[in-house]
Amino acid sequence: MRPRPLVVFDRLDLLEWQFCQRVSRLSLNRPWRLTLQAASRLGDWPVWVLLIMAQPWLQPNGAWRVMQYSVIALFAVAVYRLVKTRLCRERPFITYGEGIVCCEPARDRYSFPSGHTMHAVMFSVLVAAHTPWLLPVVLPLTLLIAISRVGLGLHYVSDVLAGAALGYAFALVSLYWMG
Question: Membrane spanning segments where (predicted)?
Fold first, then answer.
């Protein structure tokens, strides 16, 4: 008998499979695939590290923000890894091999939740609170990162939604505890 969380994921997987299949087929279009791959690579870490390191130049209390953003990012990664390694939901291209086009190497076997989306949403909320004038750049990037996770065949929509919810929650915790 499979553990209850895995049975729930099996049902979600079947419901999401057709949608993920359609979205991942869009990545056969080369310009769209390259856009999604670029967004995915930016969401790996470079744009967020740059955002963290730029805080002293972006706002008066920027040195404090470097610490705040770094602490919450490390905390988020720790919780994310704990959840991901406990739930062990396989990526859609693994579960539905020929039906899902995978256009980017996966870092590991499991998909739930989306760490890229988690960080993108978390930093978007922090940017909205501290440097809202950056939102016209950060929000479209966040949306592209979230779309790229499904479009590249690496995540289910529910992985992305869960990552977004976690990112939002971590940002709120950070704002509550550190301002």
Answer: 66-83, 120-148, 160-178
Q: Can you tell me the distance from the alpha carbon of 48 to that of 119, in angstroms, rounded to the nearest whole number?
A: 8
Three-state SS across 62-114? Answer: HHHHHHHHHHHHHHHHHHHHHHHHHHCCECHHHHCHHHCCCCCCCCCCECCCC
pLDDT digits (tens, 9 = 90+) for 5-22: 667 767 776 778 777 777
Q: Tokens 């529910």 map to which residue?
A: 158
The total of structural domains in the chain comes to: 1
Question: Alpha-carbon distance 147 to 130, whole Å?
Answer: 25
pTM confidence score: 0.86
Calpha distance 52→77 (Å, rounded): 15
Kindly report the backbone phi and psi dihedral angles of residue 25, in degrees, each rounded to the nearest multiple of 5, phi listed first: -65, -30
- 58-72 per-position pLDDT tens digit: 888 888 899 999 999
Residues 100, 115: Cα–Cα separation, whole Å: 20
Unique residue bearing structure tokens 């963290």: 52
Token representation of residue 156: 């289910």
Domain hosting residue 47, numbered range:
4-178
Q: Write the burial class of residue 91 (CB in 10 Å: 0-12 exposed, 13-18 middle, 19+ buried).
A: buried
What is the CATH classification number for the domain harbouring 33? 1.20.144.10
